[in-house]
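Following up on my earlier thread - several people asked me to post the actual chain instead of describing it. Fair enough. Here it is, all 97 residues.
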Amino acid sequence: MEPVAEGLWLLAERFEEAGCIAQAVKCFEAICQSHVSFLPIFEVKTRLRIAMILLNYTDNVTHAKSHLERAVSPYFFQSSTNVPISVFIVFFALFDE
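Reply from S.P.:
Thanks for posting it. Predicted structure:
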C-alpha cells in the first residue's frame, strides 16, 4: 500500500473512533479518488468500508449503494477474479430488490 493511502486509512479510522464520521468518509473517498494505482482489492475494501460506515452511522443508503456498485461492478464481467465471494454476498444481501 502506498504511504499516503496508508496514512489516509489510519486517519479515517481515528476519525471514525472519535465519532467524526464525515471526516472518516472523506479520508476513505480520497483514497478511491487518488490517481495512484492500487491493487483492485484495495479499492474494493475501501469502498466496502465506506459503505459500511454510511450504513452504520447515517441514513444515506443511496451513497452507500453507489460505493458498493462501484466496488463490485468491474468484477461482474471478469471470469477470473480475486474478489472474495463475501463482497458479492454483502452487495446482494443489502440491495436485493
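The chain has a mean pLDDT of 79. That should answer part of your original question.
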